[in-house]
TrEMBL record:
It comes from Epilithonimonas hispanica. It comes from the Bacteria. This is Polysaccharide deacetylase. Keywords: Membrane, Transmembrane, Transmembrane helix. The chain crosses the membrane at residues 27-49.
Length: 77
């Protein structure tokens, strides 16, 4: 019976080592993906919006927002 518990203990020890290795690999993959997103975000901020290029932005909805349309609130107060 002792050999059974020793074998079961070895199996649990191996499985926890497997889970530990899997978690480390998954953490590295998530870290690399997050680093890629961060570098892409920095690229967008510096290249696309850098050198005051954001002042050239045209908003297709500017002035067309119905929440601030005076015709809607002309009968108030």
């Amino acid at each position: 019976m002792t050999s059974f518990w020793l074998a079961l203990s070895a199996a649990f020890k191996w499985s926890f080592g497997f889970f530990d290795l899997t978690a480390n690999v998954l953490n590295w993959i998530l870290f690399l993906v997050a680093s890629g997103f961060f570098c892409y975000w920095c690229y967008i901020l510096v290249v696309t919006l850098g050198a005051q290029k954001d002042k050239d932005y045209f908003s297709p909805t500017e002035g067309k927002n119905p929440y601030y349309d005076p015709k809607i609130y002309k009968n108030e107060g």
